[in-house]
Design goal:
Layout (H helix, E strand, L loop, with lengths): L5 H13 L6 E2 H8 L4 H10 L9 E2 L10 H10 L11 H4 L4
Parallel strand pairs: 1-2
Helix pairs in contact: 1-2, 2-3
Protein name: O(6)-alkylguanine repair protein YbaZ
Pfam families: DNA_binding_1
GO molecular function, one term: catalytic activity
Length: 98
Amino acid sequence: MAAVTEEQVETVRGLVASVPPGRVTTYGDIADAAGLSSPRIVGWIMRTDSSDLPWHRVIAASGRPAVHLATRQLERLRAEGVLAVDGRVPLREYRHTF
């Protein structure tokens, strides 16, 4: 992966922070909005610098949370009114657009 700049990190952080309660976005949506070449870059940034952000509002394009975070992430989303069906968030209903 190419070096990630501080500007890119801050752009991703700003986009994640802008997702309102009760909505979700995908790693790909954020990558597109930030002008990044891959959703994996967003994943890397989220893994290393998102503890103070609403990280639970960012999910995979499949609508499923990361396996290791699924229970906690779906609980947080449910508390905001985002209801998953069989562990998958229906993106047509809850997707935030930038």
